[in-house]
Write a structure and sequence with these properties.
This protein is mainly alpha-helical. Helices cover 82% and strands 0% of the residues. The chain is built from seven helices and no strands. The model has no long low-confidence stretch (mean pLDDT 92). Keywords: Membrane, Transmembrane, Transmembrane helix.
């Protein structure tokens, strides 16, 4: 049932992002405990956010195992729906460049996660076109 895999894949992708951030928060509590008041912390958090998004996209694609780019498009919409309120809300005091990079890297995250899933799950997705 491909539609069931779709329904399961999107929340699992989001859960992977949340678990990644919680795990890194244990290892680097300084980054997660600050208000991101300097550029090195902002850049580190941006890098972690990109890695988390790639991981979440990979999980979503790995669970779905069909129609890769449709699922990456759907997952991109989910990530936008989560990050846009954050950028407009609790991240609003941050500089414009940081908020823009958070939003502008979302398609890259979905694309790289999809490429990684295609490479790992070659049998499900077939060879890269």
């Amino acid at each position: 049932m491909p539609w069931l895999r779709t329904l399961i894949s999107l929340p699992l992708g989001v859960a992977a992002i949340v678990m990644f951030h919680k795990g890194v928060g244990v290892l680097l509590p300084r980054l997660y405990g600050t208000d991101l008041s300097n550029d090195p912390d902002r850049l580190a958090m941006l890098g972690l956010t990109v890695v988390a998004g790639i991981l979440g996209s990979f999980v979503a694609a790995g669970v779905a195992r069909h129609r890769l780019w449709l699922h990456m498009g759907l997952f991109l919409i989910v990530m936008i729906a989560i990050d846009l309120p954050a950028v407009l809300g609790y991240l609003s005091p941050q500089p414009l460049w940081f908020k823009a990079m958070v939003m502008l890297t979302l398609p890259l995250q979905a694309w790289l996660g999809g490429l990684l899933a295609r490479a790992v799950f070659r049998k499900a997705y077939g060879p890269a076109a």
